[in-house]
Design goal:
The complex is a heterodimer of chains A (411) and B (372).
Chain A (H helix, E strand, L loop, with lengths): L7 H4 L3 H6 L13 H35 L29 H34 L4 H14 L4 H13 L9 E3 L3 E4 L2 E4 L1 E4 L3 H29 L4 H21 L3 E4 L2 E3 L2 E3 L2 E3 L1 H27 L3 H9 L4 H31 L11 H13 L2 H30 L5
Antiparallel strand pairs in A: 1-2, 2-3, 3-8, 4-5, 6-7
Helix pairs in contact in A: 4-5, 4-9, 4-12, 5-9, 6-9, 7-8, 9-11, 10-11, 11-13, 12-13
Chain B lengths: L2 H4 L11 H11 L4 H27 L19 H13 L7 H19 L6 H9 L1 H11 L15 H27 L4 H16 L2 H10 L1 H4 L8 H27 L2 H9 L4 H31 L11 H10 L7 H34 L6
Helix pairs in contact in B: 4-8, 4-15, 5-6, 5-7, 8-9, 8-12, 8-14, 8-15, 9-12, 10-12, 12-14, 13-14, 14-16, 15-16
The chains are: A alpha+beta (411), B mainly alpha (372).
Chain lengths: 411, 372
């Protein structure tokens, strides 16, 4: 589950390599040779052993559950959970059901993983490119970042952020403040919340229309460029018109959102968005730790572009930005994406470490609190594992699809 | 080597001179206004972080004295705390009189592992085999006791660095052969065997370790016949071994895939059967290729050992945390921060050392093989 520096990302997509490597050649289907019979017998034995093993486990489990008087089944999901969850993205209170608690916990896992992936990608790409920089100091700093952070256990980093940085912060009255709208104290992070103004719908619609128009124009322009070899001036003009109109509508409508600032009332802040410290600690630790691995992936990807490609591009008279955009990035991405997706998967699985600092994620709320309260160990663990396994299978499927789509087509 | 790429990273330095230093810094630090800004920003960042850190952790820190009184300065590190807790950190709650057993086990490990890591030691294969088979048995007997006149020590009394090493070492020793078997099974031509291996590997790679540990704690008793109660540590070790064998299997598979088919066919043409070919031709080459990957997996395992604290086993990190929670030492956040810094440095030193070793090994193994 750790962000490992293994070749596993690279090992999976070797579709073409499979047939050529040293595995036994496929046996011919025709004759009942002794070797074939031996293979069949071996398979029968393996299947029998596996079935017997699972049957034994099932038998033991059934006996134990009967002895303990545990009712099996998923009915407990409709019973009230009776515990509070400190962070819920959808309505939840102590009277809500276990099923609802599951949904809340799942959303919390998704939230911290998704934001973690975005942040880790930004930090990781920055550090990875910095490590390749011609600037000696910048490259050394980036290397120090990678070598320090990927060699310290993630759990320790989570504890560090939570227990050594966030918890010792002053109370709400002595909050660290950024201007008069962002506050950080030992109860969490307080941010201004956007509140929609009456004109917001108009502005949003304009924005959507403008973005849609731009995408349409861009696609059309690309199509024309592929056919004629150049971009018609009319399209550039059309794009300018779209941008201009959109800007005019937005400017005349005024700000589409107002910001509701958190305000200190008594002993705590009211209003705005309150982010619990557990979330902040998880997000920081996950993204900073994973970024170290992503940085290495990015570096390896850029270095994997053959030097001849750069020389050839330079010989063609391409400018540096054109070399980066049309030669380096497409080829580097092909190398970067597979291990990058497996890092995203690792980050998602690592978010389960939240259980150690009681961030209410799936592992903590469901496999922790709910399991202890209901005693439905089998059902709860099955659901939890199925969710993580589901994430994993979906991401692998996407990765395989991407690999097929971008694999080198060789003549 | 193409000058265009490498010139800035490997400056030729015949001798130090002011002009050369100036030229070097102009090329590598101030190549353009943008780079100049970057350099200045980096220097500012270093200035912001390094001097206060050195001051906090070294200059102002409490190094001498005993007890919490020595750490009166709350704005500086408190190494006295680590000193006071050192025995706990290394041995955990292991009985004082029996700690020589841990010392023997660790000393043997150091001898064995250095023999394996050092280049050009004779009979490496035998040493490796002994470290994988005889040593774990011997260490287990020494630590657990109960035979040969050694007093028994329950696993609930194992802790600290000792427990971390026990978990890491047994996961590595157990998961490596299991992983190799799985990798071979995954590449088998027998569909049942292959599908079973794929299902096993993908299941363990798809679930988080902490969930596996929860399962070991809460569900394992359900799987056992009633009356059979397996030690909590053993359950955690089984969980670690199964979980990591899936990752080991993928590393081994990478190596197996890298061996060209011609090797197999040539051996076949010489009249060798399938298993002799695997044992004598394919595996020796494949294992050589995957050694760096295996070392990296071992680093991952070492970092993961911290997770056993969620099921109530007191490894290195949790022993340090328990020390911080000791009422006697609740004198300020600087104790806590020092504890984490110490733990982080401990893990870092080990993992960084291993990764350096792996990089050196990779370079050494690459020698004499055609560049790709």
């Amino acid at each position: 589950m750790e962000g490992r520096r293994t070749v596993d990302g690279a090992a999976v997509p070797l579709i073409a390599g499979r047939a050529k490597t040293a595995r036994p050649p496929p046996r011919r289907a025709a004759a009942w040779t002794p070797a074939r019979l031996r293979g069949l017998a071996l398979q029968a034995v393996v299947a029998a052993v596996i079935l017997a093993f699972f049957a034994y486990l099932a038998h033991n489990t059934a006996t134990n559950l009967a002895r303990l008087g545990v009712n099996t089944g998923f009915q407990f999901l409709d019973r009230p959970a009776g515990f509070a969850i400190t962070q819920h993205l959808v309505a939840y209170n102590e009277a809500s059901t276990y099923g609802r608690a599951f949904l809340v916990a799942l959303l919390n896992t998704v939230l911290v993983s998704a934001l973690g992936i975005v942040l880790a990608t930004i930090i990781g790409f920055t550090v990875g490119l910095a490590r390749l920089s011609g600037n000696w100091l910048v490259a050394r700093l980036a290397a120090a970042y990678v070598e320090t952070l990927r060699n310290v256990p993630l759990l320790l980093q989570i504890f560090f952020w939570y227990f050594a940085v966030l918890r010792p912060l002053p109370g709400p009255r002595q909050s660290l403040a950024l201007g008069d709208s962002i506050f950080l104290n030992n109860r969490g992070l307080y941010l201004p919340a956007p509140v929609a103004e009456p004109d917001a719908a108009v502005v949003a619609l304009t924005l959507i229309l403008a973005v849609g128009a731009m995408i349409g124009l861009a696609v059309w322009s690309r199509h024309l460029r592929h056919r004629t070899g150049r971009t018609p001036r009319a399209i550039v003009l059309a794009m300018a018109c779209v941008v201009g109109t959109a800007a005019f509508v937005m400017a005349s409508a005024g700000s589409p959102v107002a910001w509701e600032r958190p305000v200190l009332v008594g002993f705590n802040f009211r209003g705005g968005i309150a982010v619990i410290p557990e979330f902040v600690a998880m997000l920081l630790a996950l993204s900073i730790y994973s970024a170290a691995f992503i940085a290495e992936i990015v570096r390896a990807g850029v270095l994997a572009v053959p030097k001849g490609q750069l020389d050839a591009a330079r010989a063609q008279g391409l400018k540096q930005w054109q070399i980066d955009r049309f030669v380096v990035v497409p080829q580097a991405l092909r190398v970067i994406i597979p291990p990058l997706t497996s890092q995203y998967l690792n980050l998602t699985k690592n978010s389960s470490l939240a259980a150690a600092i009681a961030y209410p994620d799936l592992m903590h709320v469901f496999a922790g609190t709910s399991l202890n309260q209901t005693g439905q160990a089998f059902e709860v663990m099955a659901i939890t594992m199925a969710v993580y396994l589901g994430f994993s299978l979906v991401i692998s499927a996407l990765m395989n699809w991407y690999n097929r789509a971008t694999a080198l087509v060789e003549r | 080597m193409a000058r265009g790429i490498a010139v800035s990273r490997l400056p030729a330095r015949p001798a130090f001179s002011a002009a050369a230093a100036l030229g070097w810094s102009r090329r590598n630090l101030f190549a353009s206004p943008f780079h100049g800004l970057l350099t200045l920003a980096s220097m500012w960042l270093l200035w912001l972080v390094v001097p206060p850190l050195v001051e906090w952790a070294i200059v102002d820190a409490a190094w001498r004295g005993s007890g919490p009184a020595a750490c009166a300065n709350k704005d500086a590190g408190c190494w006295v705390f680590i000193g006071a807790r050192f025995e706990q950190i290394v041995f955990g709650p292991y009985p004082q009189a029996e700690r020589w057993r841990i010392e023997v086990v660790i000393a043997l490990a150091i001898v064995g592992v250095s023999a394996l890591l050092a280049p050009r030691v004779p009979a490496k294969g035998w040493i490796g085999l002994a470290m994988m088979t005889a040593y774990p048995l011997l260490a287990g007997v020494l630590l657990a006791g109960g035979v040969l006149g050694l007093s028994p020590v329950s696993t609930s009394e194992w802790g600290g660095l000792t427990l971390t090493l026990v978990v890491a070492a047994s996961s590595i020793v157990l998961s490596m052969p299991l992983g190799l078997m799985l990798a071979l099974a995954r590449r088998s031509s027998l569909p049942v065997v292959r599908i079973a291996a794929v299902a096993f590997i993908e299941f363990w790679r798809g679930v988080p370790l902490i969930g596996v540990l929860f399962m070991a704690a809460s569900m394992f008793p359900l799987f056992m016949p009633s009356g059979v109660d397996i030690d909590k540590l053993v359950r955690a070790l089984i969980a670690f071994a199964l979980f990591n064998s899936a990752y080991m299997a993928e590393v081994f598979r990478g190596g197996l895939q890298a061996i060209p088919r011609g090797q197999y066919e040539a051996a076949r043409a010489l009249g060798l059967e399938h298993w002799p070919i695997m044992a004598l031709v394919v595996l020796p080459q494949a294992i050589r290729i995957v050694i760096p990957g295996l070392v990296n997996t071992c680093i991952g395992i070492f970092k993961e050992t911290t997770l056993i604290l969620v099921i109530g086993l007191f490894e290195l990190l949790s022993v340090i945390q328990a020390g911080m929670a000791d009422p006697e030492w609740l004198i300020g956040d600087h104790v806590r921060e020092t504890g984490y810094l110490f733990a982080a440095f401990g893990f870092w030193a080990f993992c960084f050392g291993m990764s350096r070793y792996s990089a050196r090994l990779e370079a050494r193994l690459a020698v004499g093989r055609p560049a790709e």
